[in-house]
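[Q] Does anyone have a clean structure-token version of this?
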Amino acid sequence: MSKPVFVHFLGASGTVTGSKFLVETPETKFLVDCGLFQGLKELRLLNWEHLPVNVSQIDFILLTHGHLDHTGYLPCLIKAGFNGKIFGSAPTLDVARIVLLDSAKIQEEEAEHANKQGYSKHKPAKALYELVDVEKAVSRFQEIRINEWIDFGNDIQVRYQPNGHIIGSCFIEIKVSGKRFVFSGDVGQEKDLLMYPPNKPQEADILFVESTYGDRLHPDEDIQGHMKRIILDTISRGGNLVIPSFAVERTQLLMYIIWRLKESGEIPDIPCIMDSPMGANILEVFHHHSEWLKIPWESCAAMCRGFTIIREFKDTLQQIATRYPKIVIAGSGMVTGGRVLNYLQEYIGKPETSILLAGYQSEGTRGRSLQDGATEIKMYGKYYPVRAHVEIIHGLSAHGDQKDLIHWLSGIKRKPEKVFIIHGERQAAEVFRLKLQDTFRWDCTLPKLFEIVEIST
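[A] Here you go.
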């Protein structure tokens, strides 16, 4: 007898962020990912709204990977009444814990700062969630084995397979009454410097595929050569190179490239700073789960020795006060918060400074404004003129481009019954829809936020 399955698109639908998909069978309800909305204010405000579902009835959560836009709403869900287990690969759970603790800490600090300075319209300003809420979420974490089917009962089986992107990242296959649902998560590049190529799905009756870079190809550029030029140009001006960076994978990749340039003698042995407590903690995850990485453990250790790794804020202030040229990698990657703001407050108005954007910049973020040529940006309630050189490297993205996504999908033998294009801005998703139609003759849907789709099994 056919059983209807309902899929609720609670995030990453018509936008890149807030990945949340509720799958509802007659016996079971579960979420795939539980991410925070980022970027545009209208999206960020959704984080404060109650989800249009009964959270207490959700049985469990499956996480594709540890990024904030896939895990950052977990403490909110706990506060709203979720009482089940949260599953992910071992590195994903380690990363998620670090990311969530950092997120809560930043929110608490920003709320405190806003209340002291009086620039928030909320009286008092509050954090979306606090450290205690994160600890409650982390207590629900449960590691799942990869590359094998796990029985979840009620005719539901789940299999995780690595998909590149970041350490621990997987796509998820879910059999519901014999029908196979595939959630891509975020698919990595085929030729990533740190991560192995993604595994490819072989079957998919119902497919949910990301489209972050579905409308473009990463430039075929000499990334190491590009980095070398930017570094040498900045040094020649006597300036500092500030790289806003995502603490998970991107920071470590940048460190690796810079270390290789130093080792080969292509750049001088100038001070290199990695100023991110979260980035430092992620390095420990790399050491603990080195089997997920292509680079040898010895190279990773040598790379770390080539950087001053900062954890304490007093050391951040000391570094900002120094006058010699240096390379600084600091969070956050979209310049939405973190210690990179402290460096930019001091350096962004100086023409000898270089700012390198080395990852995707969502709409509504400071990073996107810098990418689009903003002449000033607002930080902590004050506007700062942008006189620094703004440089961009696109090929470092942890996301595969259109070619990578097509290659990842090419292993699917039979035409899926339904294909939902998710996790992309509207233009990227639409271009990718047309590409899939032309390449595979698949009919694809671009779901709307909070849409509910019924699927027969």
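[Q] Thanks! Anything notable?
[A] The chain has two domains: 4-216+399-456, 223-392.
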